[in-house]
Each structure stands twice: as structure tokens, then as C-alpha cells.
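Researcher: I'm preparing a figure for a lab meeting and need a structural model of a single chain. I don't have an experimental structure, so a prediction will have to do for now. The sequence is pasted below. Please return the structure as C-alpha cells so I can convert it later.
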Amino acid sequence: MRRDQLEHAIRTTCQIIQEPEVIVVGSQAILGTYDESQLPAAATMSIEVDILPIADSNEETARLADLIEGVAGEFSPFEGLHGFSIDGVDLDTAVLPEGWRDRLVPLQNANTAAPSGERRFTGWCPDKEDLCVAKLIAFREKDLNFVGSLVDDGLVDGEEVMRRVERVAGGHKAAIERAHSWVESRKLA
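Model: Understood. Here is the structure written out cell by cell.
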């Protein structure tokens, strides 16, 4: 995926749910920090964008996520036309460390402007180390490849990722231990 595709996904999602802001929580959020020319292939392989609507309640978040999924999700006409899909997600999709909302990176430019040009849409992306924490907690092969490639290329600080893994809220002790073991085996930190 390219940054311009992520920008298109942000603009489209904001138009679907009629809100000016969303949060990008999947791997494509790395495009908020780097453009595709700066990233290893393993960091941009996904052709889906995970978008978390910003809403006042979990119920409203879920409703908006379903709306996004119905209009632009996998196998939708949107995916057929653009070659990528937008997955609406809820607050349980990504596990992020404490304070992640304070470190969000805005993605807003001419490509995220409304068609009229009047109003801009913003996609808030977890910062690169917080994103790696979410991927280590998820611990799927593609997530480990994602984190490993970013650390190997010097694009994220492995030691900072591990400090933030420690700040993941309770209930994830096994995932935190698994992340530590993987990092130690790779000598990332």
C-alpha cells in the first residue's frame, strides 16, 4: 500500500461515517510516519486499512465500523475499484500501550481534503513504536515480520518498543511475555 492510498481510505471513511476524524490502527498506520519509499516491503504488504471510528460509545463505534465495512470492506465494489479495502474496527481490535492517544500522528494534507476542498479529514495514526507494540501483542507471523523489518531497517527503536510493551494494560500478561521472548530471540532491544 502507498501513502496516497491510505489518504484515500481516510477521506472515504470520513465521508462514509460523516465525521472529520478517524484512527488508523492497522499496519498501514506506519504510512502516517513514513511514506512507502522509506519502508521495507514487509511494512506495506497489506491491502486492507483498519479504521477505528471516533465515537462517544462502544456501541456507536461498532455501528460505524459496520457501516464502513459494508461500504468499503473486503469484496466490496470499493475494493474492486481501488485494489484495497477498508475494515471498520472497534476498540478491541488493537491492544496499545498506555498513553498511545497522546502520541497519535496526524495524517492530513491535500489528499485528505473533502471533494469541495472546504474541510480536511484527519487520520490519526499510532506512532511507530506504539504500532509495533500492537503488532507484538497480536503476535501473528505477518505482525512479527512487520516489526522485525522496521527494527532491522532502523526505523523504530526496539528498546522503546519493549518499554512500551510493559505499559500495556492488564489482562495481557501472556502476550507481553511472548513479545519479550520473541524480542530477546531476535536481539532487537
